[in-house]
Amino acid sequence: xxxxxxxxxxxxxxxxxxxxxxxxxxxxxxxxxxxxxxxxxxxxxxxxxxxxxxxxxxxxxxxxxxxxxxxxxxxxxxxxxxxxxxxxxxxxxxxxxxxxxxxxxxxxxxxxxxxxxxxxxxxxxxxxxxxxxxxxxxxxxxxxxxxxxxxxxxxxxxxxxxxxxxxxxxxxxxxxxxxxxxxxxxxxxxxxxxxxx
Length: 197
Prior knowledge:
Layout: E1 5-8, H1 23-35, E2 40-42, E3 46-52, E4 64-70, H2 78-88, E5 95-101, E6 109-113, H3 121-130, E7 136-141, H4 151-155, H5 164-184, H6 186-196
Parallel strand pairs: 1-4, 1-5, 5-7
Antiparallel strand pairs: 2-3, 3-4, 6-7
């Protein structure tokens, strides 16, 4: 996998900031700030930034990567994101998607190449519009809702102010993982990430 496009899934608008469903978009924000990049509007209805990411062995700057979030709701984000990939002439196997995952404990990170969508509306929309599931995923665990709370309500619920510091650490670790994929490749980054957990 040669990484060229990193997508953070989330919903647009201030009302969705700090919700569990937006952990992918929050990680993109961390990367943009870390890399000194600037997000700009794109005709695909995405916001994008371009930057070199990481440091290669020997000290050379890492590869040039496009960072993106869709300017549309999660369940229809596949259209804008696939248009962006088509515009940039990027194939699915050159894409890494960062997203929330109910099936992982909160804060746990996992890398996965291809596979199903696990009921995730953002992934489902992206797979449909790309016509391909063979893109990389960085799964950020958010845990299961307590009691009988509806999962749809849980993912759209704001993360408590008391928990935000811990989530900020998770976003930084997720950003580290993206840099590792960009510099060392998916398989090596996956092996190291999973062996640490």
